[in-house]
Write a structure and sequence with these properties.
By secondary structure, the chain is mainly alpha-helical. It has 8 helices and 2 strands; from the N terminus they run H-H-H-H-H-H-E-E-H-H. Helix 3 (46-58) runs antiparallel to helix 5. The longest helix is centred in the C-terminal third of the chain and has 33 residues, at 149-181.
Length: 183
Amino acid sequence: MNHAPAYKTVTVDVPLCRDCAERHRVAAQNVSTFRRWRSFIFSPVHIATIGFTVIFFKMDLSWNDFQGLGPRGLWIASTPVLALLLAIWLAFWYTRPDRFEPRSDITNACDFSTNVSMDFGPQRHIYSLRNEAFADAFISANRDRVWTREDQVRNSWRTAYLGVIFLGGLLIARLLLWYYTEK
């Protein structure tokens, strides 16, 4: 299982009554630009950014030093610059959630999870709705899309079939390797 942080921003149009929309506007905090970007500015990844910048300026090499190497010379000369750009991109990518507007009680009232399906199954989410009337309306509007026990069993069988096909392919590949190479 991959434990690397992955972020996907999903927006959903949630119908709010006028009172709830107004309460959300009042409760929504205006976040300063510095507060939104401080996790990017103070990211530990910038230790590498500073290091690659120092290396780049301390190299004291000219393009003539790499011309004899051909295309490899361009790659060797550009490695610190590429590493610097990668470090900046990583800092930007992994601090994205910190730049969102903080959630209010109204926006927390309708929440959903990331995709909880298995790798080869259809996408599905777990919804958390605080308003019972809204939850009932949501369920009735999406009744044909509700995940059932039959869907779970069907998905488990699909995963088992794919596993058998994969293992069978590995076995066939191994037998062919043994047959043609005798190893």
